[in-house]
Amino acid sequence: MNARQDIHNSDIPVLCQACEARHRGVCGALNPDQLVALSKQSFKYRAEPGEELVGDSEKVVNFSNVLSGVVKLSKVLSDGRQQIVGLQFAPDFLGRPFKTESALNAVAATPVSLCSFPKSAIDRMVKEVPELEHRLLKQTLKELDEARDWMLTLGRKTAAEKVASFLHLVATHIDPEASMGSGPVAYDLPLTRADIADFLGLTIETVSRQMTKLRKDGVIEIEHNRHITIPDIGRLERRANI
Amino acid sequence: MNARQDIHNSDIPVLCQACEARHRGVCGALNPDQLVALSKQSFKYRAEPGEELVGDSEKVVNFSNVLSGVVKLSKVLSDGRQQIVGLQFAPDFLGRPFKTESALNAVAATPVSLCSFPKSAIDRMVKEVPELEHRLLKQTLKELDEARDWMLTLGRKTAAEKVASFLHLVATHIDPEASMGSGPVAYDLPLTRADIADFLGLTIETVSRQMTKLRKDGVIEIEHNRHITIPDIGRLERRANI
DNA sequence: CGCGTCTTTGAGCTGCCTCAATTCCGGTGG
DNA sequence: CCACCGGAATTGAGGCAGCTCAAAGACGCG
After folding, report:
1. Cβ of B28 under 8 Å from any chain A Cβ?
2. Residue A86, SS3?
3. Is residue A140 a part of any domain in this protein?
4. Based on the structure, what is the number of domains in chain A?
5. Where is the HTH crp-type domain (chains A, B) (predicted)?
6. In what order do the strands lie in the sheet with A221-223?
7. Which of A177, A178, A237, B167 has the fewest CB atoms inside 10 Å of its own CB, making it the most exposed?
């Protein structure tokens, strides 16, 4: 396994060795040489909760892979009403190919670490490595599927169903096994009540009331406001109307 | 392959000559030879309003280009609540690459004509023509942008703003010049009130009341329930909060 | 002319929002 | 160790936007 392929430049960069993006993310499209080339231009970046990563209608010069943490993508109306239109978990790709301006805000929801590289490096590599575009297409289709699923939640579900859907979404993203397994799932919520409200198209008060109701009904347990335990995910799914 | 066509095999197929998808759609990626190859497997299909083109969780064997008309993409909850998650206009591409099952319903909203071809033909060509994947990525990114825009509408806008946003969306899709021009725009609504309600996450009564309000306020004119005239698109945009 | 479908309009209800007060909790300093 | 502070979350009371239910028009078609 660790047979030291060889001592040449085809060694995988240290930064990439443990990176999820190399397996499930876009970097999986690259061979060791290409990985080395890209890693020379890439840098790791850490952001604190609330820190803006990409501003709306701002020029975008960097793309990133999310290495850990959660990034919220949001849109705002002129009068301040806000809607979160997507959450990015590791190893999602952050950036909009073929456009120089972002149409949305990207803000760290939790402490986040990113692997960033200049947009130009990707633009160049896309031309040489068709597999890279293939990965980007797959990632984009996944995000489109998720966006459309969420549109159903936003447009047609009740507040109770929305909150249950949100707790379920986070559970399945943090622990992909969760949906099949019958055992309990536990996690720390990556979002504040205000964020959850912005994701669900509700107010914080309504979110709070529905969480309380789920807790009193024994569907979830809550500790320290943030830590959620779901004893029976099937029960939560029924509440979410999935 | 028959000899006669081989002689002139670089001629563009008749079906493709006037097709928008050759310019703005995915077929723009293909050279005349490839166009001929694909067109041998493709067929034109006409559908009437209400006709189901792709069923939810149905096996998908065909992809299509929309040549004319409007297709609605929708999702339904187990209890019948429905949400339209996208509208496809010419020359949009209809189909979900890399998945054999559809996660949504596609239904003709108006009379629709399609250029259909087997999924397998595309799957094969994608491997030979990287540019095809490039086009698919662009189309998917466009749809993702639109889906996210609409999430803001669904989650955070009032009923009045939603209806105005819808009328604006149709105006700009049917006449791409509409948004810049100051002149009046007119079109036939491709959707019934029930469809509009399902697109906006409202009831038909609320849609009807808001349309009446816009009409009484002089923002739009309505003839025969379906024909809409927008004297001043800027005025509509203000109502939509764009 | 009568029937079915789509749309409009009206009247009352309710789920979520708004506004306001209180509690919880982590951090900080005495 | 406790008192205090500020931000986040909860809880309560009342209002209203949009839903539900019901009825009546508008229009196309046999």
Report:
1. no
2. strand
3. no
4. 2
5. 157-234
6. A185-188, A227-230, A221-223
7. A177
The answer to whether residue B162 is domain-embedded is: yes
CB atoms within 10 A of CB B48: 10
Q: Which nucleotides of C are covered by protein (CB under 7 A)?
A: 6-11, 15-20, 25-26
pLDDT tens column, A27-84? 999 999 999 999 999 999 999 999 999 999 889 999 999 999 999 999 999 999 999 9
Question: What number of other Cβ atoms are within 10 A of residue B127's Cβ?
Answer: 11
What residues make up the domain containing B47? 3-131
Contacts of B97 in chain A (CB under 8 A): 137, 141
Helix (H) or strand (E) holding A193: helix A193-200
The tokens describing B166, both together, are 């819808």
Tell me which residue in B73, B133, B157 faces A134 most closely, judged by beta carbons: B133
CA B108 to CA B100: how far, in whole Å?
A: 21
SS3 B25: coil
Q: What values do phi and psi take at A44, rounded to 5?
A: -90, 145
pLDDT in tens, B211-239: 999 999 999 999 999 999 999 999 999 99
Which tokens belong to A201? 């198209």
**In Å, what is the separation between the CA of A216 and the C1' of C29?**
38
CB contact under 8 A, A147 and B152: no
B11-20 — which CB contacts under 8 Å span 24+ positions? B11/B36, B12/B36, B13/B39, B15/B39, B15/B42, B15/B44, B15/B115, B19/B65, B19/B67, B19/B91, B19/B115, B20/B67, B20/B90, B20/B91
DSSP class of A135 = H
Residue B8 has pLDDT above 60, yes or no: no
3-class SS of residue A3: coil
User: A91, A87, A92, A118: which is closest to A104 by C-alpha?
Assistant: A87
3 state DSSP class of A225: coil
> d(Cα B82, Cα B195) in Å, to the nearest integer?
9
Q: What is the mean pLDDT of chain A?
A: 92
Is the distance from CB of A175 to CB of A89 less than 8 angstroms? no
Using DSSP, state whether B22 is helix, strand or coil: helix
CA distance B149 to A104: 9
Q: How far apart are the first and last CA of chain B?
A: 54
Residue that finishes a domain, picked among B68, B97, B131: B131
Burial status of residue B73 (CB atoms within 10 A of its CB: 0-12, 13-18, 19 or more): buried
Q: Are residues A42 and A113 in the same domain?
A: yes
CA dihedral over B123, A86, A95, A97, signed as positive or negative: positive
Give B211-237 as a DSSP string: HHHHHHTTS-EEETTTEEEES-HHHHH
Dihedral, CA of residue B90, residue B214, residue B219 and residue A82, to nearest 10: -70
Q: Is B145 part of any domain?
A: no
